[in-house]
Amino acid sequence: MTDNRQVADVFLQESIRAFQSMKKLADKSFSQTADVHFYETLDKESNSLEVLITHMHGNMLSRWTDFLTSDGEKEWRDRDGEFEAGTRSREDLIALWEAGWQVLLTTLASLTPEEVLSQVRIRGESHTVLQAIQRQVSHYGYHVGQIVMLCKHWSSLDWQTLSIARGESKLFKPTI
């Protein structure tokens, strides 16, 4: 295995791990949030969980369907519509969430190290596969952070931390 191929393989595996980690954070956040909070916003300019899920679903389907062979901004996508509140149930929203992640993770798992420097297009702009993946890591990380923040806000004192709880860092320091 060449060095470049090894690096590309590690990049793909780490990208999958990063996306799975993001999904896990959001999933654990959703599980702590009452149905009613999926439709609430902090103010008139913020997004609800419903809108964030719908937007991420639309983005994931658009970006990852026919990833190597068609522009990542599909003609059938209604991006503006993703930001409008709807009437989907929590179950329907979670189904959209899962469907988007399934397309993303299936596509990533199908990529080979040799394809990492191939060119793909997003909104007519050329990107390497590596750049396109990094673009989505950043984009989804941004929205998952919003999801976690909203779920934590709505759960308030009932929130169960997703990482090391405040004041407990010393419990996780390695002993020498």
Descriptive key words:
Four Helix Bundle (Hemerythrin (Met), subunit A); mainly alpha; 176 residues; 2 strands; two-stranded antiparallel sheet; 55% helix; 5 helices; flat
Structure, explained:
- By secondary structure, the protein is mainly alpha-helical.
- It has a single domain (3-172), classed as Up-down Bundle (Four Helix Bundle (Hemerythrin (Met), subunit A)), CATH 1.20.120.450.
- The protein has helices at 3-30, 49-64, 79-82, 90-110, 129-155, and strands spanning 119-122, 125-128.
- Strand 1 and strand 2 (125-128) form a beta hairpin.
- Helix 1 runs parallel beside helix 5 (129-155).
- The chain is flat, with a radius of gyration of 18 Å.
- The relative contact order is 0.18.
- The model has no long low-confidence stretch (mean pLDDT 95).
- It comes from Paenibacillus pectinilyticus.
- This is DUF1572 domain-containing protein.
- InterPro entries: DinB/YfiT-like, DUF1572.
- It holds the Pfam family DUF1572.
**Helix residue percentage:** 40-55%
Per DSSP E runs of 2 or more residues, the count of β-strands stands at 2
Proportion of beta-strand residues: under 5%
What is the string of helix and strand elements? HHHHEEH
Average pLDDT for all residues: 95
CATH class identity: Mainly Alpha
Q: Using the coordinates shown, work out and report the CATH topology.
A: Four Helix Bundle (Hemerythrin (Met), subunit A)
Low-confidence stretches: none
Q: Structural class of the helices, strands and pairings? A: mainly alpha
InterPro entries: DinB/YfiT-like, DUF1572
Organism: Paenibacillus pectinilyticus
Pfam families: DUF1572
Protein name: DUF1572 domain-containing protein
